[in-house]
Structure formats: C-alpha cells, structure tokens
Specification:
By secondary structure, this protein is mainly β. The chain has 4 helices and 17 strands. The chain is elongated and about 65 Å long.
C-alpha cells in the first residue's frame, strides 16, 4: 500500500514561517508555564493568522489545545542552566483522540511532518533531537472545530546517562558492565526478580513482562506492589516486541525508566552477572553508587 504524501504547508503557514524567520516574536500571543499548557483557539477567532508561543521548562508535561485555529510554536527546554541541547532528545505521544492539527518539526523555516492530523497509528511515540528543530503545530481547516482537541504529552530524555542512551539508541542490545552499573544509579526503578510471564501486544508492538520481585532497591512510583499471599511484589514492565523477551528461569536485576506513565525496561542483567560486575568495580573503587546489601 502506498503511503499518502505528507500534507503541504498551507499558504497561511508559509506566511507565518516567513514572518517567523524575520522575528520569532512577531504577531504572536505569548503563554508560559513550567510544565504544561492548556489553551483555546477561540481566542484567535478574530485573528486567524495569530501564532501563539508556548514556553515550557520541564522534563515532562503536556499540551492541550482546544478548538485549534492558527498555529502554536512550542518551545521546550530542560530546566537546567548548564544543559546542552545536543544531550537531549524530545519524545511526544499524542493523546488517543487528538485531532484538528498537524504537528511539524520546524527549523529555519523548513518543515518536516511529525504527526498527521487524525493519525492514530499504534506506534504513537515520536522522538527527535533538539538539533532537528522545534515543534510547530498548525490547525487544519475544519467545518466544525467544536469537538476538536489537539494534545500530546512530551518528555525530554538526557542522552548523557547510560540508561537513557541505551533506551534511545539500541533498546534490545545487552548492556555493558559500565552501562548496567550506571543504570542502577540513574534508573527510576531497580529491582531483583524473575520473569513470570510475557504478553506480546502485536498491535502496540510491545511486550508486557510480568515480574515477580523479591527485592526492591528503588522505585519512584508504585510500579511493584506486594502480593496478598507472599512476601514478594508484582508488577509489569514494557519493552519493544522486537526484543523477543521470553519467560525463563533465574533472577534478573531489572532497571528502567518511567515513560508516559509506563515502566519501560532498560538494562536487565542476570543477577549473578550483576553481582560479579558490582564486586569487581567495588574492589577497584570504581562503582558509581552503592546499591546496599543483598
């Protein structure tokens, strides 16, 4: 099946981008918040050529644009003074029923379609580097905008940490000793447990790993909860279907990050292998952090 061509920018958009190249602040309404923005295109009803600038300074948040008209320029930056843009990747996940606008990457007046209006494909997370441009959201022509809401969640991922670099570049590749040790220090969850079951979601292109846990070293949110009939915990971790995870015997050290409210697998060495690498690093004084007694 041939894919439909990307929609051409509207004459309005071409005009707006031309003005934008001259002055990033021209003919624009400004809104700012730390993490999330919620607004309405109805405020543009008498000024349909308005571009609204949105400034967000958080690691994660959301955009919710009701009754979209005109366009939004979304400026995302981490709230860290010394951060360098080359170390960050942006990921966005459109709301389930997001509609009414196309989402582009814009760089020096050139556009690259990121999310087409009404695109509800299973793989709904779109990632890009800061160097590739910023987000430009243009409302599409609608006969009735009363039921349209364009929205997405966003996350900024620091490629400077081993666990994030592993997740972005090659999520199925086994971690090196150094990556595994750093993942223990920087991950949102670190637990020792076994794989009880794996559910493959073909449509979502994900595998759901049912994990039985006997030791929690860290969890920032309550991913793993105690079972009623034992002293163990249970929880679920997601990873890409292409990684081919299978149930198996033996203990693993599971690490990973929370992405868009879901626990995503990072490094997961067998626990005996982790004990070896941890002891070797500790004996040499090179272990990046203490994990505590077994």
């Amino acid at each position: 099946m041939r894919r439909a061509p990307a929609p051409a920018p509207s004459p309005l958009l071409a005009l707006l981008l031309g003005l934008l190249a001259l002055d990033r602040g021209c003919a624009a309404q400004y809104s700012s918040d730390l993490c999330s923005w919620k607004g309405s295109g109805l405020t543009h009803e008498s000024h349909k050529k308005d571009v609204e600038q949105v400034y967000l300074r958080c690691a994660e948040g959301s955009i919710e644009w009701m009754y979209p008209t005109g366009a939004l320029i979304v400026n995302l930056r981490p709230n860290i003074l010394s951060s360098s843009s080359k170390h960050w990747t942006v990921c966005i996940k459109p709301f389930k029923d997001s509609a009414g606008a196309n989402i582009y990457l814009e760089k020096t007046g050139e556009l690259k379609l990121l999310v087409r209006d009404g695109d509800h494909s299973p793989t709904r997370v779109h990632c890009f580097n800061f160097e590739e441009g910023g987000l430009f959201v243009e409302a599409t022509p609608q006969l009735d905008i009363s039921r349209k809401i364009t929205g997405f969640q966003y996350e900024l991922i620091n490629k400077g940490t081993a666990s994030d670099l592993h997740t972005i570049s090659a999520p199925c590749r086994p971690c090196s000793d150094t990556e595994a040790l750093l993942a223990v220090c920087t991950s949102d969850f670190v637990v020792r447990g076994t794989i009880q079951n794996v559910i493959n979601e073909e449509e979502q292109r994900d595998s759901i790993i049912d994990v039985s846990v006997d030791r929690i070293y860290r969890q920032k949110t309550k991913i793993f909860k105690p079972t009623e009939d034992s002293d163990r915990w249970q929880g679920q971790i997601k990873t890409l279907l292409q990684c081919g995870v299978r149930p198996g015997e033996g203990d693993f050290l599971f690490t990973g990050r929370m992405h868009f409210g879901e626990a995503r697998l990072g490094c997961a060495p067998r626990f005996r292998d982790f004990q070896r690498m941890y002891k070797e690093a500790k004996d040499k004084g090179l272990n990046p952090c203490e994990i505590g007694p077994d």
